[in-house]
Design brief:
heterodimer, A: alpha/beta, Amidase signature (AS) enzymes, eleven-stranded mixed beta sheet, 15 helices, 11 strands, B: mainly alpha, Histone, subunit A, 2 strands
Chain lengths: ~475, ~100
């Protein structure tokens, strides 16, 4: 299977008539079938994708003309089911589409399939999926990371040129690091979440998984901007996010001390340190910086996220859509049995933790305290960005772990997000760029930018890719 | 490691509208306690003079004009996922 060309080249080829959208869709669907043993995909959209491709071949247009992509199965897409990999949404057919999908389609992109995830995006490995576990593209005994594990694996397997994910605590960057692709978490609010299954609304963002930072920038450029259907979206300016020439020389880069503390695999640390050395050799001014509250971000997250999850998942009540328990004899049972039978173990854990930290008597000690420590984290980021253009560190303390290795202890699974959650709590944009390999498994470099610094961050990531190839 | 009592877990399950099995009650009393132990690290953090941050955009009261907009949705499309419908409405178990 030959690799996909850069997204701009595919779209240019389709617009000029040199390539056909129908062939692009067929290539992607064939590739899904060839790679089915990896379980990256939950369902395909053969009919709608082929129909859209035929239409595009008649009138080829758009910046993403004929470019096939896969959406994580928590995006509402017409023409198939949207399950969020959860039993409770097993039969759900979206009655409308997410804004992100609408915007991509308006520029000619074609959604060909829905990717696997941890149910409701609760997890770091896809092992919490109610369907199946996605296998790592380089080693089928390992996880691809999560929760956007199907999306990351699909891009790493070269099934599609890009995929969409969501990142609430690291769910784009972690699988990107594990699978060796680019994973981009934009500034909070830059991309509309209308039509995406909500997890923790104060940190949920949508972003692309791609092979290059340039492709990620193009997809972001198409998706971003204010949306009246999502009141949390922020205005964007009219400049493109696609990077032009960028000078890394003289840029000030802070290396986050706390992310190299004990617990990081030595081989992972080595790859990340070597990447930072390459930036230094190319003229960046790198120095160690301490953000002492960052390690607290995970504890903050495991109060705030379950609180918001418990609220967002209250809508799954067996009345209007989703699974309904046939055993329910009265109204209360129709809620309690539908939710008990429809939700998996992780969703239940988070709902109940959320109910606990929000309940009267505990609210101040847990929820309010966590949101106040969040302020402390935000302040430390703000202060750091007065001095530095970017902050860098590892994405995770480890490479892709074995299937089953961390499932027995929920807290061990949570700890995989220890280096990604801080940027979710603060809203800062952050990217995982492939840096190298440790014992044959990919390792990502995490680069964090200042709020709304998406353009510079993507340009710096592109520059790092060039430097890293030398 | 501490455990949540059986009553604590049942109370949270009731608040969450979950009819847990006996096995789940037992397992969750340990798991929830472990998570709550972990987040205790925040207890000793000094936050003097700081206010909580509930959202990071700074946007407030985002509203739109109070006008009916036709998004083209049909009632039957919006009802197609419902477990039970009657006369174009959701049908639920008896409330009273």
């Amino acid at each position: 299977m030959s690799g996909w060309a850069p997204i701009t080249e595919i779209a240019e080829g389709v617009r000029s008539g040199r390539l056909r959208a129908s062939d692009m869709v067929k290539q992607a669907l064939d590739s899904i079938a060839e790679n089915s043993s990896y379980d990256a995909v939950i369902s395909t959209l053969d009919d709608t994708a082929s129909a859209r491709a035929a239409e595009l071949d008649k009138h080829p247009q758009g910046r993403l003309a004929g470019v096939p992509f896969i959406a994580k199965d928590n995006f509402l897409v017409m023409g198939g089911k949207t399950t969020a990999a959860s039993n409770i949404l097993r039969p759900f057919e979206a009655p409308y589409q997410s804004t992100a999908i609408e915007k991509l389609e308006a520029e000619g992109a074609i959604c060909v399939a829905k990717a696997n995830l941890d149910a409701f995006a609760h997890g770091s490995s896809t092992e919490n999926s109610d369907w199946f576990v996605t296998k790592h593209p380089k080693d089928k005994t390992r996880v691809p990371g999560g929760s956007s594990g199907g999306s990351a694996a699909a891009v790493a397997l070269d099934i599609v040129p890009f995929a969409l994910g969501t990142d609430t605590g690291g769910s784009i960057r972690l699988p990107a690091s594990f699978c060796g692709v680019v994973g981009y978490k934009p500034t909070y609010g830059l991309v509309s979440r209308s039509g995406v299954v909500a997890m923790a609304s104060s940190t949920d963002v949508i972003g692309p998984l791609t092979r290059t930072a340039e492709d990620a920038a193009l997809v972001l450029d198409v998706m971003s901007g204010r949306d009246e259907l999502d009141g949390t979206t922020i205005e964007r300016d009219d400049q493109s996010y696609v990077p032009s020439d960028y000078e890394i020389k003289g840029k000030r880069i802070g290396v986050i001390n706390e992310y190299f503390a004990e617990g990081i695999q030595p081989e992972v640390e080595k790859v990340v340190r070597q990447s930072i050395d390459k930036l230094t050799r190319n003229g960046a001014i790198t120095e160690e910086v301490s953000l002492p509250s960052l390690p607290l971000a995970l504890a903050v997250y495991y109060i705030v996220c379950p609180a918001e999850v418990s609220s967002n998942l209250s809508r799954y009540d067996g009345q209007r859509y989703g699974y309904f328990s046939p055993e329910a004899k009265n109204l209360d049972e129709s809620y309690e049995l539908s939710r008990e039978q429809g939700f998996g173990a992780e969703a239940k854990r988070r709902i109940m933790i959320g109910a606990h930290v929000l309940s009267s008597g505990y609210y101040d000690a847990y929820y309010k305290k966590a949101q106040t420590v969040r302020t402390k984290i935000i302040n430390e980021f703000s202060q750091a960005f007065e001095k530095y253009d970017f902050l860098v560190g590892p994405v995770a303390p480890m490479t892709a772990f074995k299937i089953g290795e961390r499932t027995s202890d929920p807290l061990q699974m949570y700890l995989t997000d220890i280096m990604t959650v801080a940027a979710n709590m603060s809203g800062n944009p952050s990217i995982s760029v492939p840096a190298g390999e440790a014992d044959g498994l990919p390792v990502g470099l995490q680069i964090i930018g200042p709020m709304r610094g998406d353009r510079q961050l993507l340009a710096a990531a592109k520059k790092f890719e060039e430097i890293n190839r030398q | 490691m501490s455990k949540l009592s059986r009553d604590d877990v049942l109370k949270l399950a009731a608040l969450s509208k979950l009819k847990l099995s006996e096995e789940e009650v037992e397992r969750l009393s340990g798991e929830l306690a472990e998570i709550l132990d972990y987040v205790k690290v925040l207890d000793s953090v000094d936050v003097t003079g700081l206010e909580p941050t509930y959202q990071v955009t700074g946007l407030q009261n985002v509203s739109r004009a109070d006008e009916i907009k036709d998004y083209g949705y049909k009632t039957q499309d919006l009802l197609k996922n419902a477990p039970a419908v009657h006369d174009g409405q959701f049908k639920v178990k008896r409330v009273l």
